[in-house]
Amino acid sequence: MGLVKRITRSCAVQETLGFLVAAYLKLVQRTNRFVMEPADAYERIEMPVIAAMWHGQHFMIHFAKRPQDRAASLVSRSGDGEFNAIALRHLGVRAIRGSGARGRDIRKKGGAQALRAMLRALSEGEMVVMTADIPKISRVCGQGIVTLAQLSERPIVPVAVVTSRRIDFNSWDRASIGLPFGRGAIVLGEPVSVPRDADEHALERLRQSVERELDRVHERAYALVGSRDPGAKTSPMLAEGSRA
């Protein structure tokens, strides 16, 4: 297994994997008939924004980006993150390497450098794409994305991109990846702005707003393709339990 890991994490293999992933995603985008909701979504927002997504729903999120929009995405520094960064490069998205906090605030653990890079990107007109939940705690919005919005004074826009034909994985984040030759839906939610002077209670309320809006856009996107979100919360009690 050690040899296999060394081979798969070599530069040549990572480059090849990243290229193949990007090529496959371009095929999915070209061969699915997408509808966007609302149709005038981009007329309602002023770029740059912070595009929020759930873990497991990140493979196709770049489909929502217009060709003229510059974008950067937060990608972990892990070995798996390397070929994701390469794939993003082939898809026209710049990778910011770093990790958010395992706790609630991106400033507290390991995310300070990534936070500075994302703030710089937003100040220079780049849209920033990042997952709102943190690893192993699916569909519960962390404080990191709210902190980024507060410091940058740029709004958070929840985004969902799904296809009617797809593979749903039985992973902790219930990841999904689209298949070619189907229908697709891109749903953008209501922007969530975070005032610079927001106190602890306001930040928690806004964190919950991002979470609810992300759940809503995913439910709507799956409905548009005649399906149900496999990662949807099953009950309010379960959702509260995951937050504890």
Describe the model.
The chain is of the alpha/beta class and 244 residues long. It is 40% helix and 20% strand. It has helices at residues 2-8, 11-31, 41-44, 79-90, 112-123, 144-152, 200-224, 236-243, and strands spanning 33-37, 50-53, 71-75, 94-97, 127-131, 133-134, 137-141, 156-163, 166-168, 176-178, 183-188. The strands form three sheets. A seven-stranded mixed β-sheet has the order 1-11-8-2-5-3-4, sandwiched between helices. Strands 6-7 form a two-stranded antiparallel sheet. A two-stranded antiparallel ribbon has the order 9-10. Helix 4 links the parallel strand 3 and strand 4. It is globular, with a radius of gyration of 17 Å.
Which short descriptors sum up this protein?
244 residues; alpha/beta; 7-stranded mixed β-sheet; 11 strands; globular; disordered C terminus
